[in-house]
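Morning - adenosine-5'-triphosphate inputs below, output right after.
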Amino acid sequence: MSALEVRLRLARGDFMLDADLALPATGITAIFGPSGSGKTTLLRCVAGLEQAAEARIVVDGEAWEDSAQGLRLPTHRRPLGYVFQEASLFDHLDVAGNLAFGRKRAHASEPLEPLLRLLGIEGLLHRRPHELSGGERQRVAIARALATQPRLLLLDEPLASLDLARRREILPWLERLRDELRIPMLYVTHSGDEVARLADHLVLLEAGQVRASGPLAQTLARVDLPAVPGEEPGAVLEATVVERDTHWSLMQVRFDAGLLWLPDNGLPLGHAVRVRVLARDISIALAPPEQSSIQNVLPCTVRAVAAAGHPSQALVQLACGESLLLARITARAADILQLAPGRAVWAQVKSAALVT
Ligand SMILES: Nc1ncnc2c1ncn2[C@@H]1O[C@H](COP(=O)(O)OP(=O)(O)OP(=O)(O)O)[C@@H](O)[C@H]1O
């Protein structure tokens, strides 16, 4: 049995949302897809703010909605937290007042201190919302959503109204939530960077249909999924910082099957990182190159080859140990190299970056 079951069918004019998802009990599930694909509608249905013609929503064994049984809990009886794009805090209350709001009705009695520490807002309790930066406001909004001890946290583009600097500031806090909270989080986003950095599980929506739902790394490396406009396909590797070359400002990370040099961003040795390698930054050779400007060369096996949008392009899935990579090359090159599943090749990684 899955910890979070979401089955929905809802028609709205030409738009039809049709989802049947079994999602993990903890961690961040990113709901990703183009504008208008139904991401917000899906979240609103889970929250009971929108009524689907057919719905079955089960959280940790408890049915919140089951249209076949005539069951539908109203929103206020669903133990969930909801975080919106704009932090909707009460201006007339300070942070402490905002956090206290709703706790009584939810019978939430656990102390707030661990939550304040988790989001780094212990020092902000007596400030009013207008005395907070955008990033602090959003951290308080997340804390308020969690203060009622929900069984599910919904986040609808929580970083979309923040500038790049504020987004970078808040991402580490979201990573801590992902690693420490024991409830599922559904996280709607437009941003491939946020997906790569935060998600454990990825749901890809297209025109109301679920095109993919699966663990992040495997799903990002699929060659059969539609391109999301404005997003370059690419894979994510879980790695650890193992060495640095201060002379050239580089650091080396180890993933399960090899090593990569990346621009040094100062993280300490031993630190766990996610590395994003875009498909356009990988080229493929049949033999290890002897003299090349490319420092990162990995032995791989071709797993799949598929058309990639434009007829001149091919997308190649490569297995490197247990990890998967994606390469975008020309269809002509794929033909000349006779790339087919099982072929041993060398992936030259032109550039890889930490997800920041
Ligand atoms: N209140 C509404 N009344 C009628 N149609 C709506 C309403 N809200 C959304 N829609 C339509 O429902 C579909 C799904 O919208 P939804 O907001 O869920 O998409 P989304 O993936 O969250 O988009 P975005 O990323 O732009 O926020 C779209 O076709 C949209 O035009």
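Note: The mean pLDDT is 91.

O.
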